Amino acid sequence: MNYDISPVTIDDYDALYDLWCNSEQSKRALNPVDDTKEGIERYLKRNPTTCFKACPTDSSRIIGVILTGHDGRRAIIHHMCVHEDHRREGIAHALVQKAEEALKKEGINKIFGLVFKDNDIANAFWEKQGYSLRTNLNYRNKSLNSNVPQGE
User: Residue 41: enclosing H or E segment and its boundaries?
Assistant: First the structure.
């Protein structure tokens, strides 16, 4: 399949949310505050050049997305998803490359991402992309909003 990769805009929100909700692993990562239209709009305003979508060349239907942002020092991949019907077509790899290129242009030298431990397919994918597993760190978080789950 031929597809085009272009920047994500807030006008893509409904299609992105549908894509995330159609993937059980992506759906698990959503939270009711940060992944609302307002939350994603805030994210895109801070990261306008590092978030991308993939669409078939003959359609505007979104079949893949990567949301990547940075703080000026390090980057994080927050959401990465490819529609189940279009996996193993190189779309995820192309999205990662596009995001990495954009981050390099902004002077970012290191990227990290979070993957559920039990998501074997995603963990294998990221390993193939050259993302190593850090075992010397503990990931800690704190919710500042009672509507955002703390996590396991």
Answer: helix 37-46
**Amino acid letter, 70:** H
| Tokens coding 75 | 């980057």
Kindly give the confidence (pLDDT) of every residue in the chain, 152 residues in length, as a single tens digit, with 9 standing for 90 and above: 799 999 999 999 999 999 999 887 777 788 788 889 999 999 999 999 999 999 999 888 999 999 999 999 999 999 999 998 899 999 999 999 999 999 999 999 999 998 888 888 888 888 999 899 888 887 787 878 777 766 66
Domain boundaries, position 35: 3-128
Cβ burial of 86 (10 Å; 0-12, 13-18, 19+) is: middle
The CATH number of the domain holding residue 51 is 3.40.630.30
CB contact set of 47 (below 8 Å; sequence gap of 6+):
67, 68, 69, 70
Asked if residues 91 and 78 have their Cβ atoms less than 8 Å apart, the reply is no
Count of all residues that appear for the chain in the document: 152
